[in-house]
Amino acid sequence: MNAIAWHLVSIGGRLARSMHVVPRQTVQVEDPFCDRDLILDLGGGGEGVIGQLRGRQVVAVDLRKEELDEAPDGPIKVVADARNLPFPDGAFDAATAFFFFLYVRDADREAVLRETYRVLAPGGRFHLWDAVVPPVGASAARLFVVPVRAELPNRTIRTAYGVPWRDRTMSAASIAALAHNAGFEVVSTTLGGDAFHVVLSRPY
Length: 204
What we know:
Largest sheet: 7 strands, mixed
CATH superfamily: Vaccinia Virus protein VP39
Order of helices and strands: HHEEEHEHEEHEEEHEE
Number of domains: 1
CATH architecture: 3-Layer(aba) Sandwich
Number of strands: 11
CATH topology: Rossmann fold
CATH class: Alpha Beta
Number of helices: 6
Helix content: 10-25%
């Protein structure tokens, strides 16, 4: 969907006018990982931002095989539902989600967080970058689109993420509250424009 959304933003037209497009978000993706970390990347298809950051250390999970096929080579690619991950308890040293929860309906987000908590080793951290999604309200737009400039230590990736707007309301505070319910501790929350970065930790 991200490639399609980027195309629509570029060409305009009637379908583009049915979208709510926020200003391009510049996201600094620092590298907090150790060379021995095994990293679970939720929604790691498409641009595969975290896979481009850490290559074979990453297990990229996506529900759609075509999204994984589109992602650059490097990470291990697994077709799976983030609500029911096919990994044992405590299998990963770290976890990431780069503009993934945008694609998860409100009602399913806590289930994804609980599964991530389960497969993350005690002391492991979950880095979550995403968009602030306001309520639809009276808007006639059906799609919510976020153009993103992801600045990695060694490259810049330009893309866009777009989803049906209904049932996608989200903020850093709402994610932090759900994460707390799932057992996580909130380490930090960083806000910037219409995007945020939340760092969660599974306690020892």
